[in-house]
């Protein structure tokens, strides 16, 4: 466990910054994942069209 400094309470700013960074990461990740899935789907469709 870390040694508590002169101020051992939880900083509201630090908490908000951490929470917003986490939320941004989750939102960004889900958007990126859905984009990649859609891109992969359309790419597969093009491959099937190209073979026939």
Automatic annotation (TrEMBL):
Name the UniProt key words of this record, in alphabetical order.
ATP synthesis, CF(0), Hydrogen ion transport, Ion transport, Membrane, Mitochondrion, Mitochondrion inner membrane, Transmembrane, Transmembrane helix, Transport
Which residue windows are transmembrane per the record? 12-35
* InterPro entries in the cross-refs: ATP_synth_F0_esu_mt
Citing just one GO molecular function, the answer is: proton transmembrane transporter activity
Where does it localize?
A: Mitochondrion inner membrane
The biological process GO terms on file are: proton motive force-driven ATP synthesis
Per UniProt, what is one Pfam family of this protein? ATP-synt_E
Is the keyword ATP-binding assigned to this protein? no
Query: Domain of life, per the record?
Result: Eukaryota
Q: Name one GO cellular component term.
A: mitochondrial inner membrane
The keyword Cytoplasm appears for this protein: no
Membership in a protein family = Belongs to the ATPase e subunit family.
Q: Which PANTHER family match?
A: ATP SYNTHASE SUBUNIT E, MITOCHONDRIAL, OSJNBB0050O03.8 PROTEIN
* Name of the featured protein: F-type H -transporting ATPase subunit e
